[in-house]
Specification:
The structure is a single chain. It contains 17 helices and 2 strands. With about 325 residues, the chain is an all-alpha fold. It has a single domain, classed as Orthogonal Bundle (Farnesyl Diphosphate Synthase). A two-stranded antiparallel sheet has the order 1-2. β1 and β2 form a beta hairpin. It is globular, with a radius of gyration of 20 Å.
Length: about 325
């Protein structure tokens, strides 16, 4: 299986520089927050979001060279993503992320909330300093969407009548919006046509949805070690994802288990078994494949290059995480 590291080889040097810059951007004025940031940015994340920004930036640049503003956009994208993870982990009471203790489990809820707020504030400041109003609007929308997605997820816990469209909309807010809007922002900084900018946005939108659907499948098929969190944790918390929504159409008793919020011993294990025994996981795979394939179609505007090939291969990489 192709690793993210080899996939991102066209921007390997860019990503290495990004990792160094992230810690410096946070600064050492606040020792606890800096320690939390080091903890976060030292984690074994794949840097998928900034890699997409960097690959699109290089693929759309006239001479293949990217500007300092492109680099800063990639850094801002990762800061926003990381800030959202810190807050998500507090809300979800997650003890581990990517196999390491979460910020709140290491430093406490108060520091975790402040660290997330600080990263959002820092990213906003650096965003304003790009001096591009359209890019500011795009990334500001992302921060609003992240909050909207978290609110919707909280309000719809254990909601068995949740529609697939509502699930996809929430998935867009929580995951795809950042990839889509930062991709479009890269196009704006590259000063390409509006049609290209829309293609970049749609590439990010559909790739982000595929990414989230695959994550939701892995909640049932992955091991705790590979997930970096307990398997079945989304279902346990009442977050009903594509495999569950599809399974509910086949397994009526699943609705009973969910509505009583797995109050009886063995309920959760039985619910997971029902999802696995249904067509829910295969139908979710098909849904993820549809979005990954749609994403790649929006790269046809780009001329042939190593960066374009890496972006196209990313669609396959997202799906191969399932196997």
């Amino acid at each position: 299986m192709t690793s993210a590291l080899s996939l991102f080889s066209p921007v390997e040097a860019d990503l290495s520089l990004l990792s160094e810059n992230l810690k410096q951007l946070v600064g050492a004025r606040h020792p606890i927050l800096y320690a939390a940031a080091e903890h976060l940015f030292g984690a074994s994340g794949k840097r998928v979001r900034p890699a997409i920004v960097l690959l699109l930036s290089r693929a759309s640049a006239a001479d293949g060279c990217i500007t300092p503003r492109h680099r800063r956009l990639a850094e801002i994208t990762e800061m926003i993503h990381t800030a959202s993870l810190v807050h998500d982990d507090v809300v979800d009471e997650s003890e581990v992320r990517r196999g390491i203790p979460t910020v709140h489990s290491s430093f406490g809820n108060r520091v975790a909330v402040l660290a997330g707020d600080f990263l959002f504030a820092q990213s906003s400041w650096y965003l304003a300093n790009l001096d591009n109003l359209e890019v500011v609007k795009l990334l500001s929308q992302v921060i609003m969407d992240l909050a909207e997605g978290e609110i919707r997820q909280g309000l719809n816990r254990f909601e068995v009548d949740l529609s697939l469209d509502a699930y996809l909309e929430k998935s867009y807010y929580k995951t795809a919006s950042l990839i889509a809007n930062s991709a479009k922002a890269a196009a704006v900084l590259s000063e390409v046509s509006a049609a290209w900018a829309d293609d970049f946005y749609n590439y990010g939108r559909h790739l982000g949805l595929a990414f989230q659907i695959v994550d939701d499948i892995l909640d049932f098929t992955g091991s705790a070690d590979s997930l970096g969190k307990p398997a079945g944790s989304d279902l346990k918390s009442g977050n009903l994802t594509a495999p569950v929504l599809y399974a509910l159409e086949e397994k009526p008793y699943l609705e009973t288990l969910i509505e009583r919020e797995f109050a009886q011993e063995g309920d959760l294990d039985q619910a997971i078994a029902l999802v696995v025994a249904s067509e829910g996981i295969q139908r979710s795979r098909d849904l993820a494949a549809h979005h990954a394939q749609t994403a790649v179609q929006h790269l046809e505007c780009l001329p042939a290059s190593d960066e374009r090939q890496a972006l196209m291969s990313l669609g396959d990489y997202v799906l191969r995480r399932l196997y």
